[in-house]
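Reviewer 2 asked us to include a model.

Predict the structure of this chain.
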Amino acid sequence: VQRVVRPDQSFRGYSGQIAAGVVRPGDEIVVLPSGQRSQVTRIVTYDGDLAYAFAPLCVTLCIADDMDISRGDMIVHPKNLPHVERSVEAMVVWMSDQPLTVAKTYLVKHGSAVVKGSCAEIQYRVDPNTLRRDEGTQLGLNDIGRARFSFFKPLFVDEYQRSRQTGSFIVIDPLTNVTVGAAMVIARAGADQVSRQGAQETVSRDIAWQRSKVTPDDRARLLRQQ
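Predicted model (structure tokens):
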């Protein structure tokens, strides 16, 4: 959803670009993040109503129920939901003289949603001439590398290979409002985490592992225990 259109009391529509798939009047939809359900009643465009619409058309959807829907929300089919993630791994193209730094707070623009986020880990840098992976803790101007990002609020993402619209984001410097990086999601950080029932442990996808400056040996020495 990019804009809520309400010129008068008789009309309310939700404008945006279709990221993937097809929508028709009568389709059941789910609004994220609220999870409320409704049905599409009209597909409105400048040239008149449509019988159906598909990606990458920009349209205005009218739905059967009055809901609290705002910019940045997502309207989806109930049987084709995106993944709700607070941490992803992405290939990043860095476009700033100031390097990408671990733990620094940035703004992340995903679709029409803007949230705060940070780089939790830089896994490697790619040499564009040899495609060799080099170890590194920073990405400089024009560098390409794989990094893990954590978001302050959940985002609705897919892998870039599945959906270009929901699988990409840009990184913005919060002080200058300049776009400093572009990223393609290649893996959901929560996809490799295990969830078990019963007496076994359940690992939440909202947990992001952090590197401690205190080593296990230092902690054992401080607490006088193994």
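The first strand starts at residue 3 and ends at 8. The chain is about 5% helix and 50% strand. We have added this to the supplementary material.
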